[in-house]
């Protein structure tokens, strides 16, 4: 009798679970009306503007006593300028450049990938070429066109992002 009771409870539980999961829709199945992250690519950021963005990001990092690596790429994801602050992590040199390349190639801040994986469990994003799912890569947009991106690395993701935002603000108005 106890075995039958357990089987009945398990069957009822599984039925409730399958009904609940059947009612949930997969957010990836939603088809948006407009294309997200569709800022058009523009002319590449100039060296002087890239250096100004880096200087602003480094200024913010220095004010907060952070040692960061800062990279700016153009609208084709090519490195335009790079600076490594004294004491910045060697491993973060490539990461700062990767963040900038990801932000320009995918036309969005790298935080979007971090949130997609952490908050929405979009693990498929880890399979996309050239993605880095860590904040600190910010697109540079001028007159509605993507002209490059800035990437910072060496601190926590939030520190990297804060410095990048200051650097990006020299262009993103």
Report on the architecture of this protein.
- With 173 residues, the protein is of the alpha+beta class.
- It has one domain (47-168): Haem-degrading domain (Beta-Lactamase, 2-Layer Sandwich).
- 42% of the residues lie in helices and 16% in strands.
- The protein has helices at 2-23, 47-63, 92-105, 111-118, 157-168, and strands at 69-74, 79-84, 137-142, 145-153.
- It has a 4-stranded antiparallel beta sheet with strand order 2-1-4-3.
- A hairpin with a 4-residue loop joins strand 1 and strand 2 (79-84).
- Helix 2 crosses helix 5.
- The longest helix is centred in the first third of the chain and has 22 residues, at 2-23.
- The relative contact order is 0.18.
- The model has no long low-confidence stretch (mean pLDDT 90).
Outline of the structure:
This protein is α+β, with helices and mostly antiparallel strands. The protein has helices spanning 2-23, 47-63, 92-105, 111-118, 157-168, and strands spanning 69-74, 79-84, 137-142, 145-153. The protein has one domain: 2-Layer Sandwich (Beta-Lactamase), CATH 3.30.450.
Identify the CATH homologous superfamily: Haem-degrading domain
Give the domain tally: 1
Order of helices and strands: HHEEHHEEH
Class from helix and strand fractions: alpha+beta
Mean pLDDT score: 90
CATH fold call: Beta-Lactamase
CATH architecture: 2-Layer Sandwich
N/C terminus separation: 73 Å
Quick tags:
173 residues; 5 helices; 16% strand; alpha+beta; Beta-Lactamase
